[in-house]
Each structure stands twice: as C-alpha cells, then as structure tokens.
C-alpha cells in the first residue's frame, strides 16, 4: 500500500510537471516557426555585437542604445566586458554607432545596462536614466549628455528601497501577468504597457494624479518586450520574441528568432497589427525593441546584434 501511494504521488508529480512544461511551452511559443519578413534596405550595425536591449530616440534624431546586458539565464557573447551606451545620429546619411565615454567617478567595470529612458528639461539639456544591474543588483543611473563632447557625465546612482520592495509602491494598474516595456503616448494621455507572459499590450488612460484606468487590451499572440511610438504617426512598434523557449534555453545551432510588430490605430475598435520584420535567428536573435524615426528603423536585441533599416 505504501509503495502504491508513493508511485501514485510520483505519477501525479510527473503529471503536474508535464502539465506545467506543456503550459510553459505554449506560453513561450516554443515550437513556433518564423516566417521571414525582411525589408530590403537593412544592414547590421557595426560595433553592436553584444546586445542592444533598449533604444530611445530623441526628437532631434539622436538614438541612445544600451548594450552588453548580462542577465541570469541568458547568453552573453562578451561576459568579461562592461556594458556601454552607444549613440547614433539618424540624421546622417550613413549613421554609425559610437560608444559614449562616461565620466570618472562611476564604476564602469560593473556597468550592466538594461532599460534606458531620456528626459529633456526646459533648457534643452538631455538626461539619461539607465536601469543598471551591477553585481546582479538593481539601480538607476542618471547621466547628463554632453552633445559637443559626445560623452555622458554621471550625476547620481539611485538605490531607493522601492526598487526592490514593491509592497511600498503605489499600485496604479493591475491585471498583468508580467508587465515589461512601457511607453507614454505623444500627447501624454495614455500609457502603453507590454505584458510579456500574457502576450498582449495594455492601453491605459493617465490621470493627473498618475492613476491609470484600463482602456483596452490588444492581444498579439507573441512575447512582446519593449514598446516605442512612431513620432510621425503615433503607431506603436514592438520588439517581440517569436519563440521564447529558445531564448531561455540557448542553442547556437537553433537560435531564437526575432519579430517586430506595428500596431496602427491603437485606440480604435480594431487596431491593425502587421509584422514589419521577422527572422528565424539567422540574422538577428532575440529582438527586444524596435524604434523608428522619420522612416528609419532600429531593431535591438537582448544579447545579439542590431539592425538598421530604411522603411
């Protein structure tokens, strides 16, 4: 009887594990094949071979790119090199990526940049806020951009307890499986938040006190990462992972693919969703962001290369 009970429990445990593995495979689109959609005018960006996880483009056309992220469970092609912030001027006919120098007094050796956001004050000074994971901890680094010198001056490191104590943070929206990339509409009235696990985008209305009310949920059927808005059209561009299991269990012989979606008429009853780029990993692996500027598209990845396209 005891052995029977043990076998029964063992069988039930295997069944539960199997069920969760099946669910995980389904939620990560493990077996999904990628149908190629590749614009003709695309090229890999020289110098960005170790990731380009997030991209933020100023209204002037200057693009800031975070590179070199080392994340638990993800591969790194340069594990011993610190992360960097790159700059591209999209006004140039043939823009190139340039690594920005960072001022002394900042621990550059442990720089592990993740998400990146920019802010322009009334004096037109540009500030960068970069999520950093030094020694696998979490901080936010504030930099001032010196345009003439093409360099960054480190101003401060934010180590507030709210970065790791979510119980003390004001909840402004709920209902996410795993909230990830967030962007604000050009008119500052709406927040777009990617729910990577649920494979959708939440559209939320922003109130003056920063409370948010949900307007709609747009289901994409793909693991969506970072979101950006086209400054010309208001369309949302999403860097996506078509087969997330390959991202989590990396095999260079069968790498994760990349996919970029464009969502038009976001606030309408039936937004138009189109695939603007898709590759099985032969060119670009693990796309995490897509950002556009006047007909030019930058596609970044978690740990791989970056792509520049003319639309």
Give structural notes:
The chain has 311 residues and is mainly beta. It has a single domain (40-310), classed as TolB, C-terminal domain (Neuraminidase, 6 Propeller). The chain contains two helices and 21 strands. The chain is globular, with a radius of gyration of 21 Å. The relative contact order is 0.17. Mean pLDDT is 87; it is low at 1-25.
Which tags fit this structure?
single chain; 311 residues; mainly beta; Neuraminidase; five-stranded mixed beta sheet; 2 helices; 21 strands; disordered N terminus
Distance between the termini: 69 Å
Q: Note the run of SSEs as H and E.
A: HEEEEEEEEEEEEEEEEHEEEEE
Strand percentage, roughly? 35-45%
Oligomer, anyone? single chain
- The CATH architecture can be given as 6 Propeller
Shape: globular
Query: Level of helix content?
Result: under 10%
Number of helices: 2
Rg measurement, Å: 21 Å
